[in-house]
Amino acid sequence: MWYSDRWSDYELLDCSSGERLERWGRQILIRPDPQVIWDTPKRDPRWRQADARYTRSATGGGAWDKRDVPQSWQVRYGELTFNVKPMNFKHTGLFPEQAANWDWAMEKIRDASRPVSVLNLFAYTGAATVAALKAGASVCHVDAARGMVQWARENAESSGVADRNVRWIVDDCAKFVEREIRRGRRYDALIMDPPSYGRGPGGEIWKLETNLMPFVRLCAGVLSDKPLFVLINSYTTGLSASTVSYVAQTAFAGRGGRAEAQELGLPVTATGLCLPCGASCRMEF
User: Fold this and answer.
1) Same structural domain, 78 and 132
2) Total number of domains constituting the chain
């Protein structure tokens, strides 16, 4: 498991009975997590004093019960600064377990000692984009949601990299990659965080189990002749790290890369254990 254990502004305080107790800066949040199937005693008093709690509805969705929570606030990870806020569907705009991947990608880019171009697909609020820019890469950031791309731009500004070599693209990722292939554009590194399920702007249905393999194979067409790395993230329950690794090795067969896949994890302060938070495959060339 790859641990994200270098945080100071984020802490997974405890987890029990389908919920996480988290510290985001000074804010204490409780959010649901289907991975938390155990029911250890909730001894931390912050379970009863949280600033906000997201509760799922029996009819689907859910809502935040907030006390005195700012509309948004900032958290820092090393030299990176991100804007977070309670969103619909329990999210805050940041996945703290991905910090292990930010560290890895930044090290790879800095150690390359050459210009590195990165294509970040399904790029959400741009944490990986900001990390790559901070490490000195040029980045093309692509997401279908205009609001998420704007949020990513704000994160880049907060981290002091808004003036770096970056393109912000609002588009369907597969259609964008197809156009880049026709244009002859190539990238040294690919980062992708495809959703488990979604709909494209034209109503197209995306299902990870069905679409991941053809999508990754398509992306092989925009990888440069001197590739650096490919990073694929998955939050789909039941899709193992080994499966994601097999997809990558199959799609990029013949390129000489080496793939390694693991679960991502967050240390739990109350128990000393580690909460699994999805899987990642890192492919190095």
Assistant:
1) no
2) 2
Note whether 129 and 166 are same-domain residues: yes
Cα distances (angstroms) measured from residue 5 to each of 33, 94, 108, 195: 19, 16, 19, 25
Domain span at residue 36 reads 7-90
pLDDT by residue for the chain (285 residues), tens only, comes to 999 999 999 999 999 999 999 999 999 999 999 999 999 999 999 999 999 999 988 777 899 999 889 999 999 999 999 999 999 889 999 999 999 999 999 999 999 999 999 999 999 999 999 999 999 999 999 999 999 999 999 999 999 999 999 999 999 999 999 999 999 999 999 999 998 888 766 777 788 889 999 999 999 999 999 999 999 999 987 789 999 999 999 999 989 899 999 999 999 999 999 999 999 999 999
Provide the whole-model pTM: 0.95
Judge if 225 and 119 occupy the same domain: yes
Eight-class DSSP state of 135: T
- Taking phi first (over 0 means left), then psi (-120 to 50 degrees means alpha), and beta for anything else, what does residue 203 get? left
